[in-house]
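=== RUN LOG ===
request id: a7f3
mode: sequence -> structure
chains: 1
length: 171
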Amino acid sequence: ISDAHETLCDATAKSHYVNDLKGVSSNKSTSLEKILQAETAFQKGMVFFRVKKYSEAEKSFTEALETNPNEAEYIMYQAWSSYKSKANATDATANTRQKLMRAIEMNPKLGLAQLYLGYVCKDEGNEKEAQRRFERAIQYDPNCTDALRDLRLMNMRREKEKKGLFGKMFS
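=== RESULT ===
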């Protein structure tokens, strides 16, 4: 009874109560619907992503982003799908880099974003930046086998180059 009295005495609480009685939809239900809609589109994109249908995945991730634009994971997967579907496009590289940086800014511990940014750097020929990104990917996800593999390959190439130089000098 005291809750009812407090609700009816407070003007804003009373208006919310009256709107609920009239069936006026609140922002909570619409935002929940949008979140579910975005998540559904994201999951659909993940299905395409796993089977390497990157252009279809990109469309689904874009749909998820239209509904929920502030989700770092959505941005990351949309950027990477776009990059993979438009291989060798220079504007795609810059755009992917920008989106991955935005995702990392939103969630610095997103290890996959670091990994994908490392691949972009590697494709651009920036080995030092790629190595730094792969190390960060491992820092945030110690089980990131792709980053571990790429770091190992980079170290093997570096060792081979050193041996090649020393072998030529001392022969």
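=== NOTES ===
The radius of gyration is 24 Å.
The first helix runs from residue 2 to 9.
=== END ===
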